[in-house]
Structures are given as structure tokens and as C-alpha cells.
Write a structure and sequence with these properties.
Uracil phosphoribosyltransferase, mainly alpha, DUF6341, transmembrane helix, 2 domains, transmembrane, membrane
């Protein structure tokens, strides 16, 4: 019975959940750029998140509402 459960999990991943990845693998033989489009999208999302984070850090640095005294935190002094 335990073997059937693990074979069911293997079937789920190999035959159902990995179908989009198998399609991307076969697409790579035709067009490298199309096969890596998802990677480019992830890179763009990461760059946008990084830019947003830097903008927020700049904003809070300009507001100067942070206590930068070395004794403000016990681990700094």
C-alpha cells in the first residue's frame, strides 16, 4: 500500500505537474529565447522589486526618522 502511494506521487509529478516544463524543454530546440522567456520574466520582476526596495530605503533615509545613535540598539554598542 505504501508503495502505491509513492507511485501515485511519482505519477502526479512526472505525468501531470511537469508537463509545462517538458513543453519548455522541447521548445528549446526550436527557439532558445522563447524557452527562456519565463526566466526573463522572473528577472524583470526581481529587478522591479529591487528598484522598489531601494526607492523605499532612499525615502526613509531622506525622512531621517531612524535613530542612528550607536546606543539605540544593544547589538550595536
Amino acid at each position: 500500500m505504501l508503495k502505491d502511494i509513492f507511485e501515485g506521487i511519482a505519477y502526479l509529478f512526472e505525468e501531470i505537474l511537469f508537463v509545462p516544463l517538458d513543453a519548455l524543454r522541447s521548445l528549446e530546440l526550436d527557439s532558445w529565447w522563447a524557452a527562456n522567456a519565463l526566466n526573463f520574466i522572473f528577472i524583470l520582476v526581481g529587478l522591479a522589486a529591487f528598484a522598489y526596495w531601494m526607492k523605499q530605503l532612499k525615502h526613509y533615509n531622506e525622512v531621517n526618522d531612524e535613530d542612528r545613535d550607536p546606543t539605540a540598539h544593544s547589538f550595536l554598542g
